[in-house]
Write a sequence for this structure.
């Protein structure tokens, strides 16, 4: 994929009130944002709501994104995860008695995305899958609890019955391992 | 910064990147990141890795979500690009007007390399501005006086009133994709209003610089966002201009890396066939210098670009870019 413009340029156009820039940001990052949202919420409707919220927020306050502090994709993913976890929390308080069978439905429903886009994303997804799979079990479990279930490292320590220091270092090493694998695949900078 | 804080924070970076720390710790980590480049680099790398975690299988959203999202977004914040473009144009017009106001009778007869003299230059500008005025249905009275500055000034005032009313929502609306003509050396070309507005402020700035150059005064660069919009416009016009000049490399592109005020990265499509799949050359140059090249005020040699890859193609693109202006 050859990005047409940098994060700085995109942000500047959003600040200038250029809604075509929003459409471009959406075209480029919505597969990622929606994937993260779906993975965390396991609910199609919630994932779409989160995706919409994330891009509406980007449009409303593009100044909140600081290019000096990292890539737009990283920023969008962090926001998506936060909103997705909020959505789960809201759902849990709303219907404690209903079981969520969301995950079971996921495999059967698919949208019809652009073929070339998907090819690129599929290759990247495969690399991520392999990077995560290559993690030692204790690291993978710590990441699952922290990232996908929204636990702090202290809670991770409690759930896994390990010292807090161990939880911290597992999370750090897990991400360093993923970063290393993704850099080898050319997805992250070395 | 103490060594203790440093090691305390670096231990927390994994948890921080995964969002797994409380607010007080996050504030501490982020304070430290502002002062410690080692931790900042690690933090950036881990946060980037974390952003990929959920992407084990890609699930793009349904296609109708784009329209719903754009509608919701526009309801929350009105697109204001028209205002932004009009304000930028207004600033350039005001600045040119100031310079014209300071010219004496002798200055108006100073020779200009493209339009005979300064008078001819402003008559040329007035003609190009009139095209936009007609395209946005601005009420412009036919010039009755011989005062070149006065005619241009009055036309600009009426055009600007039409544009600012539309931008403020108080006059008939103007869609940015409404057809509007651009001035080129080979005659008008119909594009969109957004392009025409960028070109008008570009031309006002260029002619102000022409006057400064004639008077031996220093040139004044426009703000960086305006420089980038001029480059955006040039990058949109280039594929057609390259095709017309016989430069067609289907799937090929040239990377444009512009530096200093107005910096950024652009990809120029080599011809009119299909999206860019591979970069055949990279051009690194000064951003404002590039816009002056597009205005025809600099040659490729003046710009002194660093070209890598297929050097011939890179320089050819610049040579064609230097013909995009309208004099």
């Amino acid at each position: 994929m050859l990005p047409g413009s940098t994060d700085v340029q995109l942000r500047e156009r959003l600040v200038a009130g250029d809604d075509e820039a929003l459409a471009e940001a959406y075209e480029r990052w919505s597969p990622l944002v929606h994937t993260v949202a779906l993975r965390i919420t396991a609910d199609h409707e919630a994932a779409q709501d989160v995706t919409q919220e994330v891009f509406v927020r980007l449009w409303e306050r593009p100044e909140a994104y600081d290019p000096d502090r990292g890539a737009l994709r990283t920023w969008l993913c962090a926001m998506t995860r936060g909103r997705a976890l909020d959505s789960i929390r809201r759902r849990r308080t709303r219907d404690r008695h209903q079981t969520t069978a969301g995950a079971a439905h996921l495999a059967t429903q698919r949208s019809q995305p652009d073929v070339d886009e998907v090819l690129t994303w599929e290759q990247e997804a495969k690399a991520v899958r392999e990077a995560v799979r290559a993690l030692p079990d204790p690291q993978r479990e710590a990441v699952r609890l922290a990232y996908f279930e929204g636990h702090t490292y202290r809670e991770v320590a409690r759930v896994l019955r390990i010292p807090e220091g161990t939880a911290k270092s597992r999370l750090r090493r897990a991400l360093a391992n993923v970063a290393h694998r993704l850099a080898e695949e050319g997805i992250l900078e070395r | 910064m103490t060594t203790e804080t440093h090691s305390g924070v670096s231990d927390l970076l994994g948890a921080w990147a995964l969002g797994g720390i409380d607010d007080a710790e996050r504030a501490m980590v982020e304070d430290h990141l502002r002062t410690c480049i080692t931790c900042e680099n690690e933090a950036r790398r881990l946060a980037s890795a974390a952003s990929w975690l959920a992407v084990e299988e890609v699930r793009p959203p349904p296609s109708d979500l784009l329209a719903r999202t754009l509608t919701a977004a526009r309801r929350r914040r009105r697109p204001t690009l028209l205002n932004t473009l009009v304000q930028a144009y207004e600033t350039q017009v005001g600045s040119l007007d100031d310079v014209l106001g300071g010219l004496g009778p002798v200055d108006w007869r100073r020779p200009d390399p493209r339009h005979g003299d300064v008078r001819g230059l402003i008559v040329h500008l007035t003609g190009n501005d009139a095209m936009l005025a007609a395209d946005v249905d601005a009420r412009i009275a036919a010039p009755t006086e011989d005062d070149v500055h006065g005619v241009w000034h009055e036309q600009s005032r009426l055009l600007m009133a039409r544009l600012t009313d539309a931008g403020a929502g108080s006059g008939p609306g103007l869609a940015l994709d409404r057809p509007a003509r651009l001035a080129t050396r080979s005659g008008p070309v119909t594009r969109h209003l957004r392009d025409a507005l960028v070109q008008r402020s570009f031309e006002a700035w260029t002619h102000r610089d022409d006057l400064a150059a004639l008077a031996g005064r220093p040139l004044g660069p426009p703000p960086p966002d305006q420089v980038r919009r001029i480059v955006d416009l040039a990058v949109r016009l280039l594929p057609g201009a390259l095709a017309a000049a016989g430069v067609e490399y289907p799937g090929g592109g040239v990377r444009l890396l512009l530096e200093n005020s107005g910096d950024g990265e652009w990809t120029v499509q080599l011809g009119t066939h299909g999206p860019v799949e591979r970069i055949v050359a990279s051009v690194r140059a000064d951003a404002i210098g590039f816009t002056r090249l597009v205005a025809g005020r600099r040659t490729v040699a003046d710009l002194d670009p660093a070209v890598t890859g297929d050097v011939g193609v890179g320089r050819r693109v610049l040579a064609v870019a230097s013909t995009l202006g309208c004099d």
The beta strands of chain B are 111-112, 116-117, 179-182, 189-192, 252-259, 264-269, 278-286, 306-309. Chain B has a mean pLDDT of 90.
